[in-house]
From TrEMBL:
NCBIfam families xref list: precor6x_red, PRK08057.1-2
Top-rank taxon: Bacteria
Pfam name, any one: CbiJ
GO biological process: cobalamin biosynthetic process
Signal peptide start and end residues: none
Record carries keyword Oxidoreductase: yes
Pathway field: Cofactor biosynthesis; adenosylcobalamin biosynthesis
PROSITE patterns named among the record's database cross-references: COBK_CBIJ (PS51014)
GO molecular function: precorrin-6A reductase activity
Record's keyword terms, sorted: Cobalamin biosynthesis, Oxidoreductase
Protein name: Precorrin-6A/cobalt-precorrin-6A reductase
Length: 256
């Protein structure tokens, strides 16, 4: 399993109870203190497509599940290519994207840079729910005051006059995010359309408070067989099993 998401952890927990399956969870290693996992874990990259294909062959992997974050475009593309090269069946465990409901004030944008531009020239108080490595473009808009939430500390901090930081790991409740936004006077939210329940609190809180959400759309990924939940992924593993003991690698490289 290529992992790092809530779904990868949930699937790993289910597979850990199966004596007929030997599961390995692969993590990118970007989080300083990742959560304890119920199956054996490997950490770090594979060295591109050929490195992942070699790993699959050398470890006798006969099922590959890409349960990475919906925005982990590179590892997902590598997984498709490596699975084809190693002739290993691939499933992408991909949570559905969020969709607008009445009351939402969404401004769809294509990238972090586009979100920075869409915030405008006038000063705003923006909540940033993005990975630490994606915050750099906001330094080009120092007129805004930023509240940044991340799993690990942002080091170095943003080179802007007004930035605050809060550490947190999902799931986040709507009522908590609403209180956070009210305390800091937030009038804009910048987030990815990650989908799922764990981080939906900020979307619901923004809707309740009438706050504008600059929502970054998902990247286009190579075609692959897709399961939208853990139960469907388990069904795929069982339908494809041809050995007495199946070996599944669930790859969820990144997730907030």
């Amino acid at each position: 399993m290529l992992g790092g998401t809530t779904e990868a952890r949930q699937l790993a927990a289910r597979l850990a109870m199966r004596p007929d399956i030997a599961a390995t969870l692969s993590l990118a290693g970007r989080t300083i203190a990742p959560l304890t996992q119920p199956v054996p874990v490997r950490t770090g990259g594979f060295g591109g497509v050929e490195g992942l294909a070699t790993y699959l062959a050398e470890h006798g992997i006969d099922r590959l599940i890409d349960a990475t974050h919906p925005f982990a475009a590179r590892i997902s593309a590598n997984a498709v290519a490596a699975a084809r090269l190693a002739r290993v069946p691939l499933l992408r465990l991909e949570r559905p994207a969020w969709t607008m409901v009445p009351g939402d004030r969404w401004r769809p944008v294509s990238s972090v840079a586009a979100a920075v531009a869409a915030l405008g020239t006038g000063p705003r108080r923006a909540f940033l729910a993005l990975g630490r490595q994606e915050l750099g473009p906001f330094e080009d808009a120092p007129q805004h005051a930023y509240l940044v939430r991340s799993v690990d500390p942002v080091e170095p901090p943003l080179a802007v006059p007004h930035a605050s930081y809060v550490l947190g790991r999902g799931p986040f409740r709507e009522e908590d995010d609403r209180a956070l936004f009210e305390t800091h006077g937030i009038d804009a939210v910048v987030a990815k359309n990650s989908g799922g329940e764990a981080t939906y609190g900020k979307i619901a809180a923004a809707r309740a408070l009438g706050i504008e959400v600059f929502l970054i759309g998902r990247p286009t990924l190579p075609p692959a067989e897709i399961a939208t939940d853990v139960e469907a992924a388990l069904g795929w593993i069982d339908r494809g099993g041809t050995h007495e003991a199946a070996s599944a690698t669930v790859a969820a490289e990144r997730g907030l």
